Amino acid sequence: MTANVFSEDDELELASEFLEINNEEELQEFVDGLIKQAEHGLNATVDPSMEQDLGDILKSVAKVALPIAGGVLGGYFGGPAGAALGSNLASQAGHAFGLELEGLSPEDSEFEVSKQFVRFAGTTVKNALEAATPVRTIRPAAAVG
After folding, report:
1. Average pLDDT, stretch 36-42?
2. HEC string of the chain?
3. I want to staple 122 with a disulfide (CB 3.0 to 4.6 A). Which of 5, 23, 117, 144 is the partner?
4. Could you give the angle at the alpha carbon of 35 between the alpha carbons of 4 and 71, nearest 5°?
5. Of 32, 90, 100, 101, which is closest to residue 61 (Cα–Cα)?
6. Is the dihedral of CA 35, 128, 44, 99 positive or negative?
7. Over the stretch 111-137, which tens digit does the pLDDT of each residue have?
8. Higher confidence at residue 17 or residue 107?
9. What percent of the chain clears pLDDT 90, i.e. is strictly above it?
10. Considering the chain, what is the average pLDDT of its residues?
């Protein structure tokens, strides 16, 4: 199994920060910071154009990852109908992330999904860095003789 990009303490702190997002600007700042923190943890830097693409992907996932994010941001873009849709999609996010949330309070469920989103974001940055790194091939030495 692949090690997490973030430490457990970082993961808890980032998940808590994610739950406090109230608007699109805060989401943008959070995602930018999340990418930078993942880069720091991986001791690598993502190309600026790839960083923008990663940010767009992570923001899209974030908008359906939690009821609060889906509801607030859905309302921001689509009024009450957007808020209802965002909250409805977000209620399914735990299943999309493969989490078993039955028996948890709504707050605990949101926190678990938030932690999974942070793990997903870290893994996404790690995979992007690995994909952008040229693969070195080892060629056998020519036979002498």
Report:
1. 92
2. CCCCCCCHHHHHHHHHHHHCCCCHHHHHHHHHHHHHHHHHHHCCCCCHHHHHHHHHHHHHHHHHHCHHHHHHHHHHHHHHHHHHHHHHHHHCHHHHCCCCCCCCCHHHHHHHHHHHHHHHHHHHHHHHHHHHCCCCCCCCCCCCC
3. 5
4. 95
5. 90
6. positive
7. 888 888 899 899 999 998 888 766 554
8. 17
9. 30
10. 74
Q: Which residues contact 21 (CB under 8 A, 6 or more apart)?
A: 27, 30, 62, 68, 69, 72
The pLDDT of residue 49 is above 50 = yes
Q: Which residue has the higher pLDDT, 71 or 104?
A: 104
Token readout for 140 is 């056998």
Q: Which amino acid is at 126?
A: K
How distant, in Å, are the alpha carbons of 8, 60, 71 from that of 76? 32, 14, 8
66 and 86 Cβ atoms separated by less than 8 Å: no
3-state secondary structure 52-68: HHHHHHHHHHHHHHCHH
Domain locations in the chain as residue ranges: 8-129
